[in-house]
């Protein structure tokens, strides 16, 4: 297994592409046929998680990696939307369809693709599969996982420095182990920086099917509740629902902290960007591109690939110039980052 030494940061582009119907979800592709081209004619395909393209966060980060690979390698690509209430069988059909059409690699964006990928990958041994945020065993599977807790720790440091009320919030989309990592790192970063700061936590739903990652109204209501409890910095790890958190924070003129992509730069959030203090970055786009490049170079990555602070796989954005106005914030974040990388700070995952 090859270890990725460095990831290239990819600025997430927001694009609106025409969607055509395919089995189990819409797809956007530069090729209109359904499998007439040879395998060598096809390149990267990604299948989106809940919320789909346009979430200004997780899925859009994956799309940025696809865009970079398409531009650099000049091949065909496809990106496929999920459908509401879909089953693992639907996901299996989607991944198998992409593999049959000759796309390589085929990447499932999100842990929800785990069971489907386990079922499909062995049936297409000549195709490299990738899955984001989950570990799936297989000779032709690359599991692209991230140290979300490390970026969240840095977000917690920033929140503790920025708060004036000594109360900050966390909104998680779904109450699952993956999102617990975000909460754990954030809480630790806050408390290590200023033990007097209180953290209010809330999860929107118990399952993804209930809309925890895809309901901005739920995120907005949760943030409004935390603001009523005096929170003046709110960190969200809630996918599309996080847009509601950011909207509520901006309207109340308190800080929001974004997630996955640099949400300060997102066009759809431009009206609220002055109140997006920073974002906990997760370079999903870089991971998607790295897998695509490895296949293009005939050296496909397989096994578990971990993207952490050491390889710039996670981090904290610095786009909002108002960060510089918060006394001691930049210095505290830099010190914490150094401590995590050299091992003197051990970040919790739960």
From TrEMBL:
Which family does the record claim for this protein? Belongs to the BMP lipoprotein family.
Q: Does this UniProt record's set of keywords contain Signal?
A: yes
Which domain of life does this protein belong to?
Bacteria
Q: Where is the ABC transporter substrate-binding protein PnrA-like domain?
A: 51-344
Species name for this entry?
A: Streptomyces composti
Main localization category: membrane
The reply to whether Glycoprotein figures as a keyword in the UniProt entry is no
Q: What is this protein called?
A: BMP family ABC transporter substrate-binding protein
């Amino acid at each position: 297994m090859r270890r990725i030494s460095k990831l290239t940061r990819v600025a997430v582009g927001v694009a609106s592409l025409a969607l055509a119907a395919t089995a189990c979800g819409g797809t956007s592709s530069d090729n209109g046929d359904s499998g007439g081209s040879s395998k060598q004619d096809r390149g990267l395909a990604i299948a989106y998680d809940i919320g789909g393209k346009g979430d200004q966060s997780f899925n859009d980060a994956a799309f940025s990696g696809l865009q970079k690979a398409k531009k650099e390698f000049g091949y065909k690509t496809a990106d496929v939307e999920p459908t509401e209430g879909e089953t693992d069988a639907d996901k299996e059909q989607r991944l198998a369809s992409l593999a049959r059409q000759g796309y390589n690699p085929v990447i499932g964006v999100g842990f929800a693709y785990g069971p489907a990928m386990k079922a499909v990958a062995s049936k297409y041994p000549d195709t490299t599969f990738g899955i984001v945020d989950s570990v799936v065993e297989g000779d032709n599977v690359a599991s692209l996982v991230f140290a979300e807790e490390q970026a969240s720790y840095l977000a917690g440091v920033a929140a503790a420095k920025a708060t004036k009320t000594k109360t900050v919030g966390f909104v998680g989309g779904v109450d699952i182990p993956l999102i617990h990592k975000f909460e754990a790192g954030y809480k630790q970063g806050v408390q290590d920086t200023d033990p007097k700061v209180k953290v209010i936590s809330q999860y929107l739903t118990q399952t993804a099917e209930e809309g925890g990652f895809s309901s901005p109204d739920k995120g907005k209501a949760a943030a409004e509740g935390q603001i009523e409890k005096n929170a003046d910095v709110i960190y969200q790890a809630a996918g599309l629902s996080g847009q509601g958190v950011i909207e509520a924070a901006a309207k109340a003129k308190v800080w929001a902290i974004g997630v996955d992509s640099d949400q300060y730069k997102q066009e759809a959030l431009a009206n609220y960007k002055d109140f997006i203090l920073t974002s906990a970055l997760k370079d999903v786009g870089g991971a998607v591109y790295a897998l695509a490049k490895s296949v293009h170079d005939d050296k496909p990555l397989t096994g578990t690939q971990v993207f952490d602070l050491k390889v710039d796989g996670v981090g904290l954005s610095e786009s909002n110039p108002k960060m510089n106005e918060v006394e001691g914030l930049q210095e505290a974040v830099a010190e914490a980052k150094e401590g995590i990388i050299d091992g003197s700070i051990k970040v919790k995952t739960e």
